[in-house]
Amino acid sequence: xxxxxxxxKASHNRPLGMSPARFLRExxxxxxxxxxxxxxxxxxxxxxxxxxxxxxxxAALSRIVLHDPGHNRxxxxxxxxxxxxxxxxxxxxxxxxxxxVDKWDADVAALLDGFxxxxxxxxxxxxxxxxTDGGGVGPHVDRYDVFLVQGIGRRRWRISTDxxxxxxxxxxxxxxxxxxxxxxxDWVLEPGDALYLPPGVPHEGKAxxxxxxxxxxxxxxxxxxxxxxxxxxxxxxxxEEKRYADPDLRPAxxxxxxxxxxxxxxxxAMPHFSNVDNSVFASWFGRFITAYRAAHExxxxxxxxxxxxxxxxxxxxRLLRNPWSRMAWTRHGRNAELFVxxxxxxxxxxxxxxxxxxxxxxxxxxxxxxxKTGLPVLAALVNAGHLLLAKRR
Length: 393
Ligand code: SIN
Ligand code: CO
Fold this sequence. Notes:
The protein is α+β, with helices and mostly antiparallel strands. 25% of the residues lie in helices and 25% in strands. It has ten helices and 18 strands. The strands form four sheets. The chain has a nine-stranded mixed β-sheet, with helices on one face. Helix 8 packs antiparallel against helix 10 and helix 9 packs across helix 10. The mean pLDDT is 95. Bound molecules: succinic acid and cobalt (II) ion. The site of cobalt (II) ion has 3 residues, from loops.
C-alpha cells in the first residue's frame, strides 16, 4: 500500500489541497493531515482583547490553563473571569480558551463556511484560544475530529500517529493529560495553516510567542447516548398505563426465579430489542427488576469480611436478609445469575435458590451449598449489607 502524504499545500481552488471527496475518503476519521495555507490570507476574526472580553461573560464557557515548566505542573481555572484575573497572570506559559465562539461572533461563525462539505449537524463549535509564549493545554487526545486553524502568531504542534501509543492519563491533573507522549511528527504552523486530527490522535500545541488558534470541532454522540435517547423516544408515547402483564400466570415452581416464560413476556413488551441475546436480556432484566421501585438501599457493613473469615463464622449462625434487598435469580447455562438490588452475581443454581428463597437462612445449610465458589458471593452480599449475620435463636 502506498502511504498517503500527511502534509500538503492548499491551492486557490483546493483549500484542502485535494477535493473534499478525496479528503473524506482518505483522511476523514482515519489519518491526520496538515494543510499549509488552507485559509490563505487569514483575517483574524477576533482580537485577543475580544476573546478576553467574552471570557468575562457569565454565559460563555471559558478556561485558563497555566503551565509551570520548571515543575511540569498544570493548573486549570474555569471562567467566567474578571479583569483582575487577567492582571495577575504570568508573562508566559498560559492560555485562555473559549468554546462556542461562533455562537457569539458572526466573523468567527463564517469560518465554518470553509467546512460546508461536512454536514452542519456534525459540526460542534469553533473554540478559540489565545496563548502567551509556551502556552498550551498539554499533551492529550480528543474524542472528536478537529481542524486546528492557526490564526495570529505561530504554534508548534506535535502529534503521534503511532497506533499503539499509550493512552494513560497523568494522575496529578484534572486536564486528562497523557502520562507519556512520544511524538512522531513535529510542525510549526503559521497563520492560515490548518491541522486536521481524527479522534484519538495524541497531540500537543505550544505557542511560539503570542498566538491564537481556532479549533473547528465536530460532534458525534456516543452509542450509549444514542441508545438511551432512542429508548426514551420510544417510551414516551407509551405512557404509564401499558404495563408488563401476565394474565396467563401459572403457579411458580420457585418464586425467586425469573423463568423463561416471564422473560418471553418482558421481550414481548419491548419488541424493538428482539435481536438482543437471551442471556444479555435476562442479565439486564434481573438487575432492573430487583432495583425497580426500591425505596431504600442497603448500608454496607461497617467492617468488611473476607470470604475465608465468613466461612469460619457461618457454622452455627443465621443470615438474615435485609428486607429492602430484593432478590431473584435466573438460569445462566448450567449455573445461575443471582440478582440482588440491581447487582448481579454468578453462583450455582442451588445457592441462588437458597439465597433468593428465604428471609432467614441457616448458616450450616448455606455453608453446605456454598462450597468454595459460593463464599465470595456470600461475602459480597454480607459486606454490601444485603445479608446480616445473626446468632442462632
Ligand atoms: C488550543 O490550544 O487551541 C487547542 C487545544 C487542543 O489541542 O484541542
Ligand atoms: Co486537542
